[in-house]
Specification:
With about 100 residues, the protein is of the alpha+beta class. It has a domain of about 60 residues. The protein contains three helices and three strands. This is Endonuclease V. Its main location: cytoplasm. Keywords: Cytoplasm, Endonuclease, Hydrolase, Nuclease.
Amino acid sequence: MAQEAAGWLPEETLSLWKREQARLKARVVDRDTEAWQRDPAFSGLRRVGGVDVSFVKGDSVRACASLVVLSYPELEFCLQVAKQNSSSLPSVCQPFRCWKQLHAP
């Protein structure tokens, strides 16, 4: 745990994250699939949402994830979900160090 808190991750964790990153990359859709995406007015789009994950300051384990959904185009509140949880992700305060580890040659 102290090793992770310092920003250094076990090779097993890095390997797992690299495999997961490759799996998710293969699922990325890089083209418009819905009619509203091709319409400059976005007609047909009904909801928009945003997600955020924040860690407790100074703690690379406890995090809070939030999802907010709004109607479109009115931008009226529809839904909010928040969950506090423990995570094995690195602290967002040290992203460059973790990025360097993930992308090292």
